[in-house]
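Dear support,

I submitted the protein below through the web form. The confirmation email said the job was done, but the results page showed an empty box. After a refresh the structure appeared. I'm attaching both so you can tell me whether what I see now is the final result or a partial one.
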Amino acid sequence: MDFSFTEEQQAAAEAARGVFAGVAPDAVPSPALTAGAVAEDFDRALWARLADADLLSLLLAEEHGGAGLDAVALCLVLREAAGVLARVPLLEHSAALAVVQAYGGQELRSDVLARAGRGDVVLTAAAHGRTGHDPAELAVSARREGAQWVLDGTQTAVPWAYDADLIVVPAGAEAGRTVLAVVPRGHAGVGLAEQYSTSGERLGELCLDSVRLAERDVVEAEGAWERLRELLTVGTCALALGLGTRVLRMTSEYTGKREQFGHPLATFQAVAVQAADRYIDLRAMEATLWQAAWRIAAQAPGALPVAGDVAVAKIWASEGVRRIVQTAQHLHGGFGADVDYPLHRYHAWAKQLELSLGPAAAHEEALGDLLAAHPLA
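What the results page shows now:
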């Protein structure tokens, strides 16, 4: 069994490191000092560099101008992005693009894929439901009226909703089916209300009031919503891993230099034990992430459906990143809360990632349901 990454996956990670090398985590105002959003738009200059490095088209096939890579490569890039708190919709854009490519109709693919791969069109996804606690596919209804689809409902906490050109929205249709509607932000009947994330980013409450879309803009293929949800969740785990890795490195550097009683903090047994526990968390987050990403990429059979591996990865990511930043705050002392020091930003982002797409408890419940439905021999 070979656990190493392919040359193409490693090349994507290396390209990402080059693009993100000059990104400063504190390039925008601190969320602790900002009443509203830390910025009105995402980092467009960084977005352009990602496009130039072909990292926006990572999952697209070569015929659409992409690299033809997989979820593992995407997670490697997202891990690098989180290390510098990159303010770009890379996860949502890439996941939505991959699903449109795999499940969308020919007309939709022709219109969206190449332009989105170049970064000219920005995609995001609405996956949090009406309240953030209910299933996203039940928050919006979709019904046919002649040759059109009509959408009604509300999705909360849509990332980059004010900045994206297209929003991919799951919606419940007849017979319990879920379709994915590709909704232009400025379309008739589309309304947005400002919301703010823990990390200080501007989100949007998306309200759809009798929004009419052509058939070409609705993805009806079975499995499309499940794939989008899996990619978004495993990508969130990759962001948590990248953030946790950077925070643990910051903690190591600080405790190695900070002295008490004439000795570095890192030499104290109590400090070393806490750091070792967080290192174990990080390795567990990493192992479960790559297992889930590989299952998505390879569609390999297993004792449980892919959703089981995704749930395990999200459980570890949610719990692990929370413990890592809490320990970092404790070992940094007052520096952890100092707004002139970047750790408080990582803490805010970690809390956002922990709860995004469901906290650990929600995924533990989903995993229990899967185990009940697929008893292990």
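Response: this is the final, complete result; the empty box was a page-load delay. The chain has ten helices and ten strands.
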